[in-house]
Amino acid sequence: MQRQAVFVKIIYAIAFLMLLSSCQLSAPAPSSSGIGHALQSGTGIGERAEGGTLPEATGIELIQPVRPIVLGFSQLGSESEWRMANTNSVKEAAKEAGIELLFENAEQSQEKQFEAIRSFIKRKVDVIAIAPVVHSGWDEILTEVKQAGIPLIISDRSVDVGDTSLYVTHIGADLYEEGRKAGKYLVDKMRDAAETVQIVELRGTEGSSPSIQRGQGFRDIVLKQPGYKMMASVDADFTFERGKEAMGTLLEQYGSEMDVLFAQNDDMALGAIEAIEEYGLRPGVDIVIISVDGTRRAFMMLGEGKINCIVECNPLLGPNMMQAVQELVAGRTLPKRIVPQESVYTEQMAKKETPFRKY
Length: 359
Known about the structure:
44% of the residues lie in helices and 16% in strands.
């Protein structure tokens, strides 16, 4: 009986071991990739993922979405057709590049630009760009940007700072050269003048870099020639209304004595044309008119012979700016100056060029 009892116990033991072995073979082995997946998804082993279910242990790594580049841009205002075209170019280029644009219009106020820049710093944008309303007074605020570790782009107008490392690059026209181009055209056109050529100038915003540099470039060419005189230079703030008003005042003072008007942008030139016609003179004939920008409306006046020369200043800087932003974020080096291609247009070229004006 004892042998029989022992034999039965052995049979039960063998059966139990076989059953245990079978369970171990059928159970899945722990997956290290499944653990990694749970950790990467922010869910610990045994914790429930959002939605109430555990993540499947697939072994595939989750790819976190890359946030868009954020650009803070302080535009100086909306004083002219050129400026509005410039703003639209920046907005469209940012959208096309997938860059999140924080846009602030300073409405011709440097103080508002300071406020915008400080808000960009607070929001920790990737890049800051400014179109400065005036030439000076930027050292302190740009130092704040540099201390925050945010790269800065200057767009269109330039700034006068003691340390040029405060900004990475300046994208925009050579404003001094624009003035020289206007001067060279005038000297060529009036080369056979028998009497002194009397000139009046409509300047842009007081203290702005276009007003300073275009005016200086023009004078460096024209006033170094014998037989040229600057009768008056008046601030007209780059606007149509001020251009018309200032030209009306000049006509009352000098009348038909003036031979040439140098308007530092198209809006002032277009306002001046209205004032000249209301006075009873013929713009482009009785008074030679030279303008800067190259807007569609100015080209129409050029085609009609009411403007004699337009020095182009390209406002479509958006694509250049977005490319610079992407290069900076990628850690690449940029040239200190990026100057778009620009031309000089006369009456003979107007009809051919007008249909291609995008602004």
